[in-house]
Amino acid sequence: MKFRLTKWIRLQKITICLFILTCFICELQAEEVEQGTYTDLTKALQNPSKVRVLNLSGQELATLPKEIGQLQNLQELYLNGNQLKTLPSEIEFLKKLKILRLYQNEFSSAEKERIRKALPNCEVDFGDK
């Protein structure tokens, strides 16, 4: 009887260890998929070279700091649903930017044109029809 109980306890320990290992591997895979994606500007600016995607949609931003130009590897920038009227001139330093979404902001026609000219190789979308 004692032998069976000891075997049972070992089997439970092995099962628990396998479960923990599986959870750890799943967590690592999830981090890998999300790596380079940020939703917090402060955190993004702490690791500027690692930022690939920055989603600041719906954060009620009235301005964007000039430090945005430090995100040299940024490829996608989402600024939908804010209160932006202008973007800093430093956006022209975002040479790798491919997608810029600016729906539901308050840009003038002149500002829209300036942004498009500053980012000629970027798909800039103001949500206009």
Automatic annotation (TrEMBL):
Domain of life: Bacteria
Gene3D superfamilies recorded: Ribonuclease Inhibitor
Claim: Repeat is one of the keywords in the record: yes
UniProt keyword list: Leucine-rich repeat, Repeat, Signal
Pfam families: LRR_14
InterPro entries listed in its UniProt record: Leu-rich_rpt, Leu-rich_rpt_typical-subtyp, LRR_dom_sf, LRR_domain-containing, LRR_R13L4/SHOC2-like
Cellular component annotations (GO), alphabetically ordered: cytoplasm
Keyword Signal: yes
Residue span, Disease resistance R13L4/SHOC-2-like LRR domain: 42-105
Signal peptide: 1-30
SMART domains for this protein: LRR_TYP (SM00369)
PANTHER family to which the protein is assigned, alphabetical: LEUCINE-RICH REPEAT-CONTAINING PROTEIN, PTHR48051
Record's protein name: Leucine rich repeat protein
Record organism: Leptospira weilii serovar Topaz str. LT2116
Source lineage: Bacteria, Pseudomonadati, Spirochaetota, Spirochaetia, Leptospirales
